[in-house]
Amino acid sequence: MEPGCLFCRIVAGEIPSTEVASTEKSYAFRDLNPQAPTHVLIVPRRHIVNADTVVAEDAADVADLLLTAQTIARAEGLVRDGVDPAEEGGYRLAFNVGEITGNSVPHLHLHLLGGRRLGWPPG
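The chain above was modelled as a monomer; its predicted structure follows.
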């Protein structure tokens, strides 16, 4: 745990959140300022600053974020097993690096967004 890190404190249970999923390596919770009907943040339990600081030793943590996102997307009805997301449904996954992108918490987090047509570019 990194002292003063908002997401480390959420993972530790010091700050309340609406849990969506939890694994040995990841914790997922609803975003307080959702940008889509489904907007979940998935964070590694271990403190990693951002996607630009990821190293090979972080591979299992990052893979778990993606696998957790897949599980949540199915549970939230954003995609269905056996159905091509291009045909029906879908979701967006995003890592932001740097404050200019809106990243205000220096703890790696994956945004899972879905439930409506999402424009491009995001925002």
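The beta strands are 19-22, 26-30, 38-44, 91-94, 110-114.
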